[in-house]
Amino acid sequence: MNTSIATVENFTDFYNILHRDFEAVYVPMEQSQSVTTDNDNINLSVCRYVFAPGFELSISKYHIKNDFFLECEPQYSSIELQAIYEIDNYIASKPDIFMRVFGDDDSTRHCAIHYQKGRYFAVEMAVTLQHLPRYIDVQALMGLRCAEYELNSELLFSDVIGQIRNNFQIGNMQKLYYQAKSLELLSFIVSVLEKNSINADKVCSRLCAEDIAAIKKAHEIIHDRYDTNLAIKQLASMVYINSDKLKTGYKALYGMSVHEAVISRKMEVAYRLVTHEHTSVKDTSLQVGYSNQGHFIDLFRRYYGFTPGELLLNAR
């Protein structure tokens, strides 16, 4: 399992990572691009369509020969949709669909993707928030926050993604078709985000300015005190807010529960300690607030899909 870590300034940087770490070969096409590579870890074929600055679709077939892990920190604000099919069960399988929002708030932009051994077909669409107003009215989406959504139950997404999969052809003649389907997906995305935004607004409308300030302070504490096991009641008392208000308000403001945020921050720091500083599993566990090493290893495995010991072995 190899590890790549990068700060990503724009969409093209991801393909530069592939080029740098996996010796990918680029074949330019008119207003699009194909990317291929074949090495010990991955056999990859990507067709990338750039419809306009900050709006693109990529269609990929790849064979992961050995597990590897890609960590990046997008420095732009965007909405990214990813749908993945298992090729070995290509006809019967339904895609796993995820949407990541990198908003303009101060939430973590740490993005960790675990590529597991197997053969896959992927459809990925991305649009920067800067360019989103070109395509759709986004007044209801102002102040988007960093969040991740699982969309497997959203049939509208799977139907359109299935159409892209079933009509996949490499070539410039397909670009107009893919752009139309990408705009269709974008309209569904905005609908999902508006619904979540309305629900969040309903919760926030019941909070006074002092409550919102307290919740933001709690968020800062979670970020800074990752070495502490923070309970809801303890955190609420630290920022002088009711526990129930903290629970509902935090979920509305940051798109995840307080417990999820605490775990996410601890796992992010643990990953960096192992990969950047080669800290032992025992010391990493203690530094992120877990005296029970076995519990830490179990949480890490569930969060990332492998143990900190396996990560440390490959990071050295």
What does this protein look like?
By secondary structure, the protein is α+β, with helices and mostly antiparallel strands. The chain is 44% helix and 26% strand. It contains ten helices and eleven strands. An eight-stranded antiparallel β-sheet has the order 2-3-4-5-10-7-8-11, sandwiched between helices. Strands 1-6-9 form a three-stranded mixed β-sheet. A hairpin with a 3-residue loop joins strand 3 and strand 4 (42-52). Helix 4 packs across helix 5 and helix 7 (258-277) runs parallel beside helix 10.
User: Biggest sheet: strands side by side, in what order?
Assistant: 2-3-4-5-10-7-8-11
Low-confidence stretches: 1-8, 24-31
The total count of helices amounts to 10
The strand count comes to: 11
Overall geometry: flat
- Proportion of residues in β-strands: 25-35%
Largest sheet: 8 strands, antiparallel
Rg, Cα atoms, Å: 21 Å
H-E order: EHEEEEEEEEEEHHHHHHHHH
Indicate the mean pLDDT: 77
What is the percent of helical residues? 40-55%
Give the oligomeric state of the chains in this entry, treating copies of one chain as homo and distinct chains as hetero.
single chain
What class do helices, strands and sheet pairing give?
A: alpha+beta
Question: N- to C-terminal separation?
Answer: 12 Å
